[in-house]
Amino acid sequence: MSDLKILGKNARLASKAISNLSAEKTNLLIKNIAKELVNQSGQIIDQNKLDIEAAKSKGMSAAMIDRLVLNEERITQISNDALAVSKLDDVVGEIIDHKIMDNGLDVSRIRVPLGVIGVIYESRPNVTIDIACLCIKSGNAVILRGGSESINSNLILAQIIQKVLSDMHLSTEIVQLVQSIDRSLINEMLRLNEYIDLMIPRGGQELVNMVADNASMPSITGGVGVCHTYIDESANWNDAVEIVNNAKVQRPYVCNAMDTVLIHSKIASDLLPEIANRLSESNVEFRCDSRSFDILKNVKNAKTTLATDQDWDTEFLDLIAGVKIVDSLDMALEHIDAHGTGHSEAIITNNSDSISRFRNEVDASAVMINSSTRFNDGGQLGLGAEVAISTNKLHARGPMGLRELMSYKWVVQGDGQIRN
Predict the structure, then answer these.
(1) Is pLDDT of 1 > 70?
(2) Is CB count within 10 Å lower at the N or C end of the chain?
(3) Which are the contacts of 327, defined by CB distance < 8 A and separation ≥ 6?
(4) What pLDDT shows up at residue 146?
(5) Which CATH number fits domain 227-375: 3.40.1280.10, 3.40.50.620, 3.80.30.20, 3.40.309.10?
């Protein structure tokens, strides 16, 4: 039996133990992990520095390095996120619905864990803690496979989790990390449908496509975000400037950051320069269609180039924004339909008809009305931490929290009934 199959077999056994753990002990486990993260922050930072130094020596982009960094502030935030998960409602065994049949049968549906979750992710070591805590809280075991660029960070974080498990006399196989960085193991992991119930990729388009093409178990194969903000002719201009700036600049290296701003032609000549001036404070580069280029080319400090066809389909993950002028809501909807990835789409408007059409016609996991695309996030939407943002339509869509890591079973209790 290969090492990965041993991990799978152990995870399957551990999933039975974690699914039977009391809510009180589950929450204590997560709280202890959160506490230990802060206690071991010095060691975490030391190991993280090894990953940062290696990333810099390989010439990795600023966006990728930003995702890797763990400092005191981020470790504290990760710990707080874990504590937030421990405070979420306990959902294992939750009764979804219940009824008494005419024949006296007591019928209910109860929420149950999926079993074993597999996660393949890139760069972000915080994912190790986020997903481990959500899996624990939802009664699932988990096998984690992080990227080679964050191997030292992931190892120390996994060691901390397993120490807490051991100290609480729980199976350390509840949370396991694939410690080899051999990429061929990914394909082997994708064939472990005997042990893994759901596979979740967290990374770029190449990783997502590879999982979609090769996973032998159900998988979450969305998550890549080409996100738009459409500014309607009735928009509040101050709101438009601040929302677009937040969506692009607040954290440009993540999937729910805005990639393209679409603006109605009736307000473009006056409002676009204001938007460009605001975003230029953060050195945003603008990839413009011909009409927006003519407006912005003379704006001081604005870095403008003509967009290529490829730009409209690009998740920039950087301080780059596409800019396109449209003559109607219909044109905006057509552009989003052609180039969006079903992730996060926003409209800024005071027109109730435009709101209704945008809400109903845009096919995305989250539609934002007069708010930033950055709110498509599990923490921001009240789920606690998230394992991923799914652009699938089955079985989960949008931020995946506890309930998205669970299924249900029917429980039928009788007192001797037989079917006629």
Answers:
(1) no
(2) C
(3) 264, 265
(4) 95
(5) 3.40.309.10
